[in-house]
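Page 47, continued from p. 46.
Same chain as before, 97 aa.
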Amino acid sequence: MNEPDAKHDLRPEPPLPDLALVRTDLANERTLLAYGRTALMLAGTGVSLIKFLKPSPEMLLLGWFLVAAGLVVGVIGVIRFTGLKRRLKRSHEMLGG
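Result:
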């Protein structure tokens, strides 16, 4: 009986998340995963060429090139992810979140 009436509850409602920022953040994470898959496939293909095929100078060169390309793609993905994450955080703070 002593409980306050729901209509007269004066506590402030919690702020709603900005759904556009949430969607962008989730898309950013999916993009990072795509970069990671691509990097892993490039490096894995390079290692396969180096380890499992008949060693020839061309295959070794191609294999090491693919391993290096995988590393570069992975680093680019992380750099882009962290850059956008920082910009999203600044946008969220500017909007008062």
